[in-house]
Backbone:
């Protein structure tokens, strides 16, 4: 057997794991998923589904070999699984951290962005577009596009641009154009709609790199497959390290790419409890007067509906209008969630939980001052959950550190200053007078 | 080839002029006057936009109109009341996004299901039933491709509504066959790639699309980018059975809002532009007939 054949069969074996078969054929996860997009985009989506099958599932032309090589050399995989000694002591349980914050760019987003930009290249596309909320996906896409020499335009809500200036600068440094979106509240939901509009006009030579497991088929399965490398490594690492599976896996959930990437290879391990931690914002109640959900907990509180190409769980009013969501973390600030997660929640396989802004901020400081890791505010929700619910968890917990918090330092200063966060440093030198 | 006799009649014996406005833009009463003005201007079918918060197929002109309407508290129930109250001869078609159709009646279904402990029976049927009762003759749903449309198509067949599909410049081969097998009433021929919006010229993608559709026996109405009588004339002369005009009319409403014009003034402008578009379409139809005769 030649080396190529050998690596092809190994890659094939990994991508054929049972937990990753779900939704591949028709993009349906029970009642969720599907393809709800303007007709003009359907041929491109069919072309993408065909490319996904050929290159990602069947490793045609050695696509997956090249992806794995690039995500190792350019991306820095595998990321470590680190034992968190002080958190383990604090919670009297073994806590392991999957360090996606150490991936190039500082977040798990590169797994998917690199995979899709490379796929676009194999498909002969000439231009990349993407949307971004917190800027992590935009940054990862801009890096991947620069690395693979593809022109790239990123849509970003105006409000998010103001919240995430360092990431905007990073995208521009990598040669991407950043287009502000001023419609609606100027956050991720509006940026996605705007990117879809661009795509409707340029579909023949442009690939839209969707940043999460949302959107029309094949995006939810394809993004999951690129992100599943997180759980693939974490599962092997935890077994190697401890001789067994974890009792619990915890990941924060916005659109759900980090969540599903962390859960994918554990879904079939029925002894492992999977906890998706959503942004509970300021409250889980909806403000009926303004029609605003002061949270982003669409798995926990949302209703079934159709948004941005898929049927899934959404924050919507009784007429079906999509609500404005809220989170201290712009990366979680989205009114929908991936259809596969919606399905796994309905099936009882994934436990949807919500952590409010205050608890997330506490988690941000907790990980920073106990373990020396400053997490993204998205990730901080998972640690807020750990602090509040550790007594309900088993003896071995894996938490995904989905991204690092450098991008969130301005927001963290501002939000900490507005609250009484017990484990925060003295804020006086950072605010007022400085 | 269709469920609605009114829509079939609109395309019978001449070019159909199909204008679009957003119901409730900028408010309920004004938009009633505007829709009635379109009717006086010669509309054969009127597409009434029911606003959705995430209109991914629309350009900025219509998106802003949808926002104005939502700000004026438009809802599906008020939309249906509007369809019942508006005084027009043209056949009415509702253009909206699938989530509103899917969600309508769902909250009741959900409370019933919570009471019974069974899964909610969601689906498009309650919306279609209500639309039929309000006198709506057809539906256009820009984010619903043929693949996901069977439940809606069944409900439309049950209540006698047409389900109009959009054919894009990128729709070819088997997709085109399948889509055309599902169309009823008329097919909405998207004149060019992109989102809705008035343009200075019409695309040569239109001619290609009409050529591809020639063999299908269903009325072909061309939309996206038509804004003048001259556009209408050329498109109908090129083989279209009708023209769909949205953004150019919505621009007139937006101009009224920006310049604080009276409702009557805006209505007059809409009626005049409608007449120009309708007459352009008729000129195109006559020149096509003459071409056929001389051949």
Residues:
């Amino acid at each position: 057997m030649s080396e190529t054949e050998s690596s092809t069969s190994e890659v094939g074996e990994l991508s054929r794991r049972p937990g990753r078969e779900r939704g591949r054929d028709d993009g349906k996860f029970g009642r969720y998923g599907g393809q709800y997009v303007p007709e003009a985009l359907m041929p491109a989506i069919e072309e993408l589904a065909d490319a996904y099958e050929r290159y990602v599932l069947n490793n045609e032309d050695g696509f997956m070999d090249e992806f794995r090589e690039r995500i190792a050399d350019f991306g820095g995989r595998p990321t470590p699984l680190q034992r968190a000694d002080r958190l383990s002591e604090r919670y009297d349980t073994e806590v392991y951290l999957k360090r996606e914050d150490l991936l190039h760019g500082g977040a798990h987003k590169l797994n998917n962005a690199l995979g899709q930009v490379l796929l676009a290249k194999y498909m002969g596309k000439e231009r990349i577009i993407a949307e971004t909320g917190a800027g992590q996906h935009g940054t990862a896409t801009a890096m991947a596009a620069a690395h693979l020499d593809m022109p790239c335009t990123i849509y970003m809500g105006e409000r998010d641009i103001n919240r995430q200036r360092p990431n905007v600068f990073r995208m521009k440094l990598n040669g991407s154009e950043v287009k502000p979106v001023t419609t609606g509240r100027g956050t991720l939901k509006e940026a996605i709609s705007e990117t879809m509009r661009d795509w409707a006009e340029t579909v023949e030579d442009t690939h839209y790199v969707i940043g999460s497991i949302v959107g029309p088929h094949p995006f939810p399965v394809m993004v999951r497959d690129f992100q599943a490398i997180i759980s693939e490594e974490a599962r092997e690492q935890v077994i190697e390290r401890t001789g067994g599976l974890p009792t619990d896996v915890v990941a924060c959930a916005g659109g759900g790419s980090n969540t599903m990437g962390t859960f994918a290879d554990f879904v079939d391990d029925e002894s492992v409890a999977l906890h998706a931690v959503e942004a509970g914002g300021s409250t889980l109640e909806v403000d009926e007067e303004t029609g605003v959900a002061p949270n982003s907990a669409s798995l926990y509180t949302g209703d079934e509906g159709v948004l941005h190409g898929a049927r899934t769980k959404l924050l919507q009013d009784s007429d079906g209008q999509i609500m404005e969501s809220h989170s201290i973390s712009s990366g979680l600030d989205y009114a929908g969630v991936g259809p596969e997660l919606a399905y796994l929640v309905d099936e009882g396989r994934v436990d949807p939980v919500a952590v409010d802004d205050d608890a997330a901020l506490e988690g941000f400081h907790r990980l920073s001052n106990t373990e020396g890791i400053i997490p993204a505010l998205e990730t901080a929700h998972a640690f807020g959950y750990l602090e509040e619910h550790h007594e309900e968890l088993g003896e071995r917990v894996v938490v995904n550190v989905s991204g690092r918090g450098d991008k969130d330092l301005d927001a963290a200063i501002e939000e900490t200053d507005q609250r009484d966060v017990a484990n925060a440093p003295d804020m006086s030198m950072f605010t007022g007078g400085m | 080839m269709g469920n609605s006799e009114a829509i079939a009649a609109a395309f019978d014996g001449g070019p159909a002029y199909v204008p679009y406005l957003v119901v409730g833009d900028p408010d309920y009463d004004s938009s009633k006057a505007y829709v009635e003005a379109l009717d006086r201007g010669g509309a054969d079918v009127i597409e009434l936009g029911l606003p959705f918060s995430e209109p991914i197929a629309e350009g900025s002109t219509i998106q802003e109109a949808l926002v104005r309407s939502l700000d004026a508290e438009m809802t599906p129930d008020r939309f249906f009341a509007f369809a019942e109250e508006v005084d027009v001869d043209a056949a009415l078609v509702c253009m909206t996004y699938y989530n509103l159709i899917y969600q309508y009646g769902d909250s009741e279904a959900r409370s019933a299901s919570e009471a019974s402990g069974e899964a909610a029976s969601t689906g498009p049927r309650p919306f279609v039933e209500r639309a039929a009762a309000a006198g709506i003759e057809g539906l256009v749903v820009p984010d619903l491709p043929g693949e996901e449309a069977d439940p809606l198509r069944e409900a439309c067949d049950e209540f006698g509504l047409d389900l109009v599909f959009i054919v894009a410049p990128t729709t070819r081969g088997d997709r085109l066959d399948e889509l055309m097998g599902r169309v009823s009433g008329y097919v909405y021929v998207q004149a060019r790639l992109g989102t809705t919006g008035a343009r200075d010229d019409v695309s040569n993608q239109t001619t290609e699309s009409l050529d591809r559709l020639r063999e299908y026996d269903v009325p072909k109405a061309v939309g996206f980018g038509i804004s003048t009588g001259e556009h209408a004339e050329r498109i109908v002369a090129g083989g279209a059975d009708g023209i769909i005009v949205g953004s150019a009319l919505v621009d007139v409403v937006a101009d009224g809002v920006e310049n604080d014009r009276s409702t009557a003034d805006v209505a007059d402008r809409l009626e005049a532009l409608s007449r120009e578009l309708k007459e352009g379409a008729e000129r195109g139809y006559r020149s096509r007939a003459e071409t056929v005769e001389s051949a």
Chain B has 13 helices and nine strands. The CA atoms of residues 146 and 179 of chain B lie 6 Å apart.
